[in-house]
């Protein structure tokens, strides 16, 4: 439940960050593109707000991502015990040495048939 909440918050922060970046003018104009000098926020002030908002959203994305990762590694997130998880846990791990080594109880392979080497 907590992981789902963090994922939803992460998606909201990502969408908000994308909007903040798209609103910004590359030359520092930002939202104040009307040219009216009597608006409440000036060009510089709007740029500062958008820049600070971008940094805050970026920090939130990092914090949410780290929290989701930490919860996943601790096993507190989605410990449902699904059939897929059970199957993965029951599957035997392959030997690091390999299974191609013969054992003493193995019967030797039949000798290969000799090939006819005469020319025809």
From TrEMBL:
<feature type="transmembrane region" description="Helical">
    <location>
        <begin position="54"/>
        <end position="72"/>
    </location>
</feature>
<dbReference type="Pfam" id="PF03840">
    <property type="entry name" value="SecG"/>
</dbReference>
<comment type="function">
    <text>Involved in protein export. Participates in an early event of protein translocation.</text>
</comment>
<keyword id="KW-0812">Transmembrane</keyword>
<dbReference type="GO" id="GO:0015450">
    <property type="term" value="F:protein-transporting ATPase activity"/>
</dbReference>
<protein>
    <recommendedName>
        <fullName>Protein-export membrane protein SecG</fullName>
    </recommendedName>
</protein>
<dbReference type="GO" id="GO:0009306">
    <property type="term" value="P:protein secretion"/>
</dbReference>
<keyword id="KW-0653">Protein transport</keyword>
<comment type="similarity">
    <text>Belongs to the SecG family.</text>
</comment>
<keyword id="KW-0811">Translocation</keyword>
<keyword id="KW-0813">Transport</keyword>
<feature type="region of interest" description="Disordered">
    <location>
        <begin position="74"/>
        <end position="120"/>
    </location>
</feature>
<keyword id="KW-0472">Membrane</keyword>
<dbReference type="InterPro" id="IPR004692">
    <property type="entry name" value="SecG"/>
</dbReference>
<dbReference type="GO" id="GO:0043952">
    <property type="term" value="P:protein transport by the Sec complex"/>
</dbReference>
<keyword id="KW-1133">Transmembrane helix</keyword>
<dbReference type="GO" id="GO:0065002">
    <property type="term" value="P:intracellular protein transmembrane transport"/>
</dbReference>
<feature type="compositionally biased region" description="Low complexity">
    <location>
        <begin position="102"/>
        <end position="120"/>
    </location>
</feature>
<dbReference type="GO" id="GO:0005886">
    <property type="term" value="C:plasma membrane"/>
</dbReference>
<keyword id="KW-1003">Cell membrane</keyword>
